[in-house]
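pls read this protein.

:::
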Amino acid sequence: MLARWRKKIARLPVRGWARPRHQKARQPPGPCENATMLPNIVLIGFMGCGKSSVGRRLAALTGHRFIDSDEMVAQSEGCSIAEIFALGGEEEFRNAEEKVLAGLVGVAGVVLATGGGAILREPNRAAMKSIGAVAWLDADPDSLFERASRSHRRPLLQTKDPRKTFDHLLALRREIYEATADFRVDSTGLGHDQVAQTILDRTMRHRAGSAPGQ
């Protein structure tokens, strides 16, 4: 099963991987054998925090491939996230999401943007920790809601009172984000490039502090 997921990763089109056009094509990622290479970076955070936009910039900074777990779920299921929710409900989506994340364990050279609710399942949290340094991308609630509201493809916000739903979900998840992350970055008032550089700097400091003998 996991080998099949890794083959899917290697076959993904260039669109969405954020590799600059002038760069040579990279080999499909495999188990990390070079301890000196830049670590993988896993982005977690609530809807609207900018994981995908920041993740693409991080990929450009590091030379890693960019992976969006929601895009991988949609590709694996052959339909959009909204359609998965409509046809099978959130449980169906979470099951597919868990398989995608499990398939990324042991893959090197990636920046991974996860769905806002990926941290709800313990196997997902363990997978993220195994994949790389986990960065919690956060912002003040008003900024998050304003950004999230720009998209009409948020199944969990298709309610009579989107802001009430938003605040409720955010309150439920904040402690889980904090417990899962290696560090938190507040993106309030910052541009995507600034946030990406901050995450990279924090990742390297975290890695240095986690090295044997530190």
The chain has one domain: 38-208. The CA atoms of residues 124 and 142 lie 28 Å apart.
